[in-house]
# Entry
Amino acid sequence: MSLEKISHRLGIEQSLSRAITFAGGFTNLTVKAVQELFTLPFPMKLVVDQILSIGVESFLLVLITGLATGSVMALQFGFGLARFGGTLYVPKLTALAILREMGPVFTSLLVAGRIGSGMASEIASMKVTQQIDAIRALGTSPTQKIVIPRLIACLIALPLLTLMGDYVSLIGAMMIAKFELNIDFSYFITKALETLTFTDLITGIAKTVVFAFFIAIAACWKGLNTEGGTEGVGQTTTWVVVTSSIFIMVADFFLTKFFFLTVYPKY
# Structure
């Protein structure tokens, strides 16, 4: 066997080993978090602090991104459908795309980039400076003090950010429809409300719950298992952003397929 083939085989084995290690560690940390979730005292102050960090500090970022997303989608649909005389379908298509896909996915990607990396780097810094060991030495569970507050905060903040992002995106689309496509506000709102259902909103929010769970657990697990000093902290941050983004895109496909088979109305 040539050296190149041996090197390629070793690379595959290492990648497979890392994937298995992550899957096992992710599952183990999830089980620990669920087991210690109801352990007293509940870290309410830590949860509130994390909600403020994740939600409030991400408000402006989601606001700008949502406005731009809705505006761009209205432009794309408007000028694209104008070739076929379908400009009046812009409100329906834009509203559905935002609530079902663009709002949840874009908001989750932003949170993965800003909050996921922040959580991972913070926990990784605690790990390399032995603060995690100090928490254990005091007889306190790192899972309860570090993982659970961040997990609960993500599960609360990300759906709320998505709702805000959806709302702002629709406003942006409505403004573009009015001033670029000559579609009145009243017509846009009427057609959007005719098309959208409560199911569309709930399925979009349900996606963000899945995404938030993965972002929080993956960031915490990687942070708690960081090695290599400050260089390891940088690698951890990059790994969390890349892994979370890939998961969001892949999981979105399977969740969308699942919802089409189960809850979306059949046309």
About this structure: The chain has one domain: 40-262. The longest helix spans residues 90-128. The mean pLDDT is 83.
